[in-house]
Specification:
heterodimer, A: 115 residues, mainly beta, six-stranded mixed beta sheet, five-stranded antiparallel beta sheet, 1 helix, 11 strands, B: 117 residues, seven-stranded mixed beta sheet
Chain lengths: 115, 117
């Protein structure tokens, strides 16, 4: 069974600090990796995607991927109280035509940014 | 553009009752999915569909059924509701693999919160 593991937290950081969220996955043929943010009572929304080893930056968010270690991370710089949410790591295994877009989700990390 | 629309948003069922969660998308996406999310947990795939008339089981299909007669609609049927089916249900869609619009992103509906008592 393909698994995606995250620390459930909660992770608490002060405003302005860097929040670091981690995720490991078990399926070595995984091709695509995503970070979704989910506010309480809302649906998940995509904030970052990453497909190759290394770093990918988008504003205050940086996704990092290490396929050899089967590890994905998300860094949030200059954390704001509005970043307080659950962050879900999601993995798509197999080539695009065989996975049919199915994502396997981790259990999510609760992030709290306090003023 | 409505995206993915789910109804109802909230529902309370008694044990043994049946109901259908409705899902519609207006983005002409081939792929559609039903996930459930239990408190403090991630999303688990129940069923998915790659196009009209084609459905397949996900990770947790027991107690559910689906159909996909058109591209737009993908209802989820609960037969003989059990307390273990108390959860939040999310319908999602994505473009077919290989299409230029496919980034791997799933587009989610707002969710349907179901309680079975």
């Amino acid at each position: 069974q393909k698994e995606v593991e995250q620390n459930s937290g909660p992770l608490s950081v002060p405003e302005g600090a860097i929040a670091s969220l981690n995720c490991t996955y078990s399926d070595r043929v995984s091709q695509s990796f995503f970070w979704y943010r989910q506010y309480s009572g809302k649906s998940p929304e995509l904030i970052m995607s990453i497909y190759s080893n290394g770093d990918k930056e988008d504003g205050r968010f940086t996704a990092q991927l290490n396929k050899a270690s089967q590890y994905v991370s998300l860094l949030i710089r200059d954390s704001q109280p509005s970043d307080s949410a659950t962050y879900l790591c999601a993995v798509k295994s197999g080539a695009g035509g065989t996975s049919y877009g199915k994502l396997t989700f981790g259990q999510g990390t609760i992030l709290t940014v306090h003023p | 553009n409505a995206g993915v629309t789910q109804t109802p948003k909230f529902r309370i069922l008694k044990i043994g009752q049946s109901m259908t969660l409705q899902c519609a998308q207006d983005m002409n996406h081939n792929y559609m999915y039903w996930y459930r999310q239990d408190p403090g947990m991630g999303l688990k795939l129940i069923y998915y569909s790659v196009g009209a008339g084609i459905t397949d089981k996900g990770e947790v299909p027991n107690g559910y059924n689906v159909s996909r007669s058109t591209t737009e609609y993908f209802p989820l049927r609960l037969e003989l509701a059990a307390p273990s089916q108390t959860s939040v249900y999310f319908c999602a869609s994505s473009p077919q693999a290989g299409k230029s619009t496919n980034t791997g992103e799933l587009f989610f509906g707002e969710g349907s919160r179901l309680t079975v008592l």
